[in-house]
Amino acid sequence: MSSAPKSIILEIRAGAGGQEASLFASLLANMYTKYSQKQGWKTVFVSSSASDLGGYKEFVMEIVNQEAYEKLKQEAGVHRVQRIPATEKSGRIHTSTASVVVLPIYPIEAFEIKPQDIEISFTRSSGPGGQNVNKLETAVRVVHKSSGLMVLSQDQRSQQANRERAMDILRSKLIELEEKKIAGSATEQRREQIGTQDRSEKIRTYNFPDDRITDHRIGKKFHNIEKVLGGNLDPIIKAFEK
Asked: Which chain positions lie within coiled-coil regions (predicted)?
């Protein structure tokens, strides 16, 4: 597209590893949130699905800044964690995964969506925002009829704000389909980024016992995991800029 992305949608999903995968997904969500805050970028909650045992099955947020896509596009893929869970009695290291999808959001003028091409429904929000939000039908679900793409936005503000965000996300996904010449759903697009979410399909490994992060694409190692997960992503991001 000729227009530059105005923001990105960052989707994080727990993969292999049960509860540990959900907890790892939460760590990644916190890492990208803290990094965005350090950059002075605005972040907006879109939707989430919590695990019964703690952590996230899925977490989606929007990062509003024109620099976000260029800096974070290499984060897309399967992230793998190796650590000893708090519940592990024998000290055995567990390996779990979480996937990250990075979708650029383009201005409205970049792609027109006709009203007759979509179906919109409203439901009660299950995300943060207090009792008022959860009692009202503020969440918005948009389905693109021909492709089957479905987008849910349940931000805490209002139905109108959710509708606009859902349309932004849908527009981004349709642009991606058009650019890649993919007919049907967004499954193929996502598969390119996250594969099967298996432990062997990874772009980066976070090894807690050795305090080491390895990016398998560029063959570089980084240390101080806690600092990186606290939002200090600059060393990794700068390594990709070289």
From this structure: none
Contact 170, 113 (CB under 8 A): yes
- Fold for domain 7-108+186-241? Alpha-Beta Plaits (3.30.70)
pLDDT, tens only, 225-239: 999 999 999 999 999
Q: Which residues contact 134 (CB under 8 A, 6 or more apart)?
A: 124, 125, 126
pLDDT for position 74: 94
DSSP 46-100: EEEEE-TTSSEEEEEEEEE-TTHHHHHGGG-EEEEEEE--TT-SS-PPEEEEEEE
CA distance 95 to 19: 11
Pick the CATH number of 114-180 from 3.40.50.720, 3.40.50.970, 3.30.1330.30, 3.30.160.20: 3.30.160.20
Q: Which of 240, 238, 231 is nearest to 27 (CA)?
A: 231
